[in-house]
Amino acid sequence: MNLEDLKIETYPIIPEGGQKVNYHSRGVKITHVPSELVAICTIERSQTKNRDVAIAMIEAGLEKINWNHHAI
Fold first, then answer.
1. 52-72 b/e (C-beta count within 10 Å ≥ 16 → b)
2. HEC states along the chain?
3. β-bridge partners, 41
4. Which residues contact 44 (CB under 8 A, 6 or more apart)?
5. What is the pLDDT of residues 13-70, one digit of tens each?
6. How many CB atoms lie within 10 A of CB 26?
7. How many CB atoms neighbour CB 31 within 10 A?
């Protein structure tokens, strides 16, 4: 998998109760553009960890569908 094939987006997660004070961008959405496979992760408290989990999800999904970057 080439990192250049990934579109990475981040967005804020609003805590339960609707409090919008002291929150940061933590959610991560990663799209593998050639295959259109999408992974969204919001479970970790760190954006970096969410990114790592989402990339692992993309890698697992590509393996599951036997993705070949030479495919049409």
1. ebbbebbeeebeeeebeeeee
2. CCHHHEEEEEEECCCCCCCCCCCCEEEEEEEECCCCEEEEECCCCCHHHHHHHHHHHHHHHHHHCCCCCCCC
3. 28
4. 26, 50, 53
5. 766 665 555 566 689 999 999 999 999 999 888 899 999 999 999 999 999 998 876 5
6. 20
7. 18
Non-local CB neighbours of 67 within 8 Å, separated by 6+ positions: 35, 37, 61
Q: Which long-range contacts (CB under 8 A, 24 or more apart) does 39-48 make?
A: 42/13, 47/10
**Domains along the chain?**
3-64 (3.30.160.20)
pTM of the shown model:
0.79
